[in-house]
Every structure is written in structure tokens, then in C-alpha cells.
Amino acid sequence: MSAATVPYAEAMDRYEPVIGLEVHVELNTLTKMFCGCATDFGAEPNTQTCPVCLGLPGALPVVNGKAVESAIRIGLALNCRIADWCRFARKNYFYPDMPKNFQTSQYDEPIAFDGWLEVEVPASDAGEAFTYRVEIERAHMEEDTGKSTHVGGATGRIHGADYSIVDYNRAGIPLIEIVTKPLTGAGDRAPEVARAYVSALRDLLKALDVSHVRMEQGNVRCDANVSLMPKGAERFGTRTETKNVNSLRSIERAVRYEITRQAAVLDAGESILQETRHWHEDTGITTAGRPKSDADDYRYFPEPDLVPVAPTAELVEQLRGTMPENPAERRRRLQSEWGYSDLEMRDVVNAGAVEVIEETVAAGATSAAARKWWTGDLARRANAEGVAVTDLGVTPAHIAELDALVRDGRLNDSMARQVMEGVVAGEGSPTQVADAKGLELVQDDGALQAAVDKVIAANADVAEKIRGGKVQAAGALIGQVMKEMRGQADAAKARELILSALGVEG
Ligand code: ADP
Ligand code: MG
Ligand code: ZN
Q1: Structure pTM?
Q2: Which domains, ranges and CATH numbers included, belong to the chain?
Q3: Contact call for residues 388 and 352 (beta carbons, < 8 A)
């Protein structure tokens, strides 16, 4: 059952949207936040647990030092201030996926706070590209909960389910929750700002190498708060919080939908209920979850079983020294080094091929060849097989070697493609495949000249046209020469010889 909505443009005529994003990031530490259990994704349910992450009485947690370092590095990358002393807190609530009946989190003493991230919003139907500065409220450490599966019933939710099962492998995996301040002033571009922010954040986390950042595996999960206020108003409206919007595209869609739904509620003179909402990927709408007031009482109190976290100034400075180049700046630098157009660079980024092209160029290929292979034939093949382009068994060194064979004049483009087939099929390196298949341009000019002469003699009519100035007709003859040479000739050279035999300038 979908609610009434107002067309987006109309909603934007009357209201100003305010958004706030809460992003949960699962860290890629080998062990959990407060115990030594493994964090591998996809293991048999309940095989990566111990008394600590199962919350058994008497079990004592110990903080994962690597997780604290990752939290500080994330804070620094988001231009935050880093607390020199902070504590964990118990967030008390009862739910089966949280066996201790409290989540160890941080409350009024987060490890990082007061930061910002500059976000590039790309051009769209709605207008030009622009940059937006997202203010960061805080980034705090906490632990993930177990994963419940509700079996039976139509919705997959707990209501109406026959029974539920819980996998505690995820319980205790380190999480960083990053919360923005209310984002204002983006107007009708607000949904795009939300998407661009999560996209930039994901790139940053990847560059920091603190998370696997696979949104489809839930490594990065986003809750989107949205409210509307009448244009010109000063006080924010009441917000809703749409939970677990887990792809970039859905974030933009969910914010946009909420704007159109809330506008309809406000237009009808009713008020927005402060509540969580569920996002439905298939229908593109949100539905009511549970009411949620700011005063929800989790009875937070400092965790007595853990010592405070007090990073020294030396540690923070040392971690500051590990900051990666800003992903957006890095992209601009690489684009100019590689000489790609904006469009080419965009394709490369969308194909997720920046790193692999960087390695391929470092291995000696030209940037043009690296782009052609990784975003062309190989990308198509990976797409068809549903795997990442880097999982085809082709390495940057292979591409560099193949490119050298083409540049040295041993292979032409169609031969290079045949060689690539062999490399993908696991038949060896490009040189090995070319040797095995006997692929080599004939370097013997005498043989090529003989083929050219033969083809001209057999096609006197075409030759006459070319002599008369119809140079395009040479294509037909080149094709026949290549056939004579069983594909092993350099087409450009064949063209040259044909034209000079007929006494015309190329
Ligand atoms: P909660 O406990 O509800 O998750 P948080 O403080 O963790 O609260 O996150 C609330 C998010 O909502 C923050 O990103 C905040 O900036 C944002 N927010 C607060 N008020 C509004 C509002 N009126 N409209 C939109 N977003 C808001
Ligand atoms: Mg929150
Ligand atoms: Zn454990």
C-alpha cells in the first residue's frame, strides 16, 4: 500500500529538504571488536563465536587495538578532532540478535567528532556539477549485532513469521558509525548530495583500507534521515529515518521518495510522525517502521568492563602520516597523467578499473592500451560472466606484455584479441599463446607485395576506381590481401603497398 505523494518538482517549489546520514561501516579487522573470533564473511552460522561475543555471564571483553587505529584513521580522513580520552558505553535494549541485552557502543564520548568531507556532486538532468561540504557530527566505535532470519510469513520481517533463527558470527564485528550534521541548502539536489556523500565516503574507506566496503555484503549500511520545512522557515521539520538503504542508487531514490511522501502529508495539513521507515527496493517506496522519539531511553552508561581509550598524541600523529591521497584528487591527477577525456575517465571509474589501470601502466603498457583492454573486451567478458574484471585471470603484466607485442609490430589488433582469448582461457602468457597459435605478422615484405600484386591483378575494376581517385575502395582490396596472408599481415602496410602500386597518394 503506497502513500500519497506529490510530484518532486512541486514538492521542491514549497519545501526545503534537510537530510542527515548515518553510515555504519564494518571494519576489515581479522578479529572482532572485543574478542579473538574470526570475522570471515559467509562462514557456517555460529562457528565464529565465543563466550564474549555470545555475551555469556562472566566473559570479559578486550578492545581490538587495530579497530581503534582504524577508527582514528577514519576520523582523521574526515577532518575530525580525535578525542584524547573516551569511553565505551552500554546501549541497553532487548533483542535476540544482541545476546548481552546491550550493545557496546559509544555515546557522549565518541572517538572522533566535528569533521567535514568535501563531496563532488556530478552533473545531472537537474543541473551542473558542484561541490558540497558535508559536516560530520561524529564517528564512533561499536559492535555489530547478530543476523536474524525470519522464516515463514510473506515479508521476511518478524511479524507473521513462523520462527526466527539467529547467526552470531556477525555479533561483535567492529563497526564505525559515521553521523553527519543536518545537511541543508542542497535544495532539489539533496538526494544527489546524499548519494555523492556515501559514494565519496566509500572511496575514502577503500583508500584507507579499513573496510571491504562491499555494500551488497552489508559492509557499508546507510540510514537516511529526511525532513522538510516550508521554504524560508528556520526551524527544521520532523524527520523520518529510513533504515538500511544499501546501494548508492537506492540512497538517492529513498531520499527522493521520502521528500515526495512528506510533502503530501504536510500539504494535507497533517504532521510527520517521527519514526523509522523501511525501504522497498522493488517498489521504490518506504513504509512505516516503529515510532522513534529523540528521548528513546537506552539507559546508556559507561561500560565498566573496558578501560577508557586514550590515544597518545604520538599515535595520532603517526596515524596521520598514513593518510592516503584524497581519492578525488588522486583521480584528477591520474586523469591528467593518462591523458583521458572526462568521459573516458568516468567510464574507467564506473568500471572500477582505476587501480588495475594504474598497475598496468606501471607494468609498462600505454595508458590508452590499458584503458582499451580493461574497459573494453575484458569488461564485457567480466560482465557477461558476472565476475570482477580483475577475476578473469588476466594480470596487468599480461596486458603490458600484449601491448608490447602490438607496439613491436609482431601482432595486429585482431591477433592481439585472439591472444587475449588464449590468456583468458589459461593457455599462458601472451608470448606463449602467440607462439602456440603461430600468430605473427608476416614481416617478409616480398610475400606481402606478391599478395598485393595478385589481388590487384584479380580485381582490375576496383583497381581502376582507386586509380581514378576513389581511395575508399582500397578497403575491399586490403581485405583480400589479408585473406591471402591468412590474417598475418599488417593491414596498414598492405594499404600502403596497394596505393603505391596504383600510383595514388594515401
Ligand atoms: P538517532 O539516535 O536517531 O540515530 P543520530 O544522532 O545518530 O540519532 O542521527 C540522527 C541523524 O539525523 C543525524 O545525521 C542528524 O544530523 C540528522 N537529523 C537531525 N535532525 C534532523 C532533521 N530535522 N531533519 C533531517 N535530519 C536530521
Ligand atoms: Mg544513530
Ligand atoms: Zn567471540
Answers
A1: 0.81
A2: 8-320 (no CATH), 327-437 (no CATH), 445-501 (1.10.10)
A3: yes
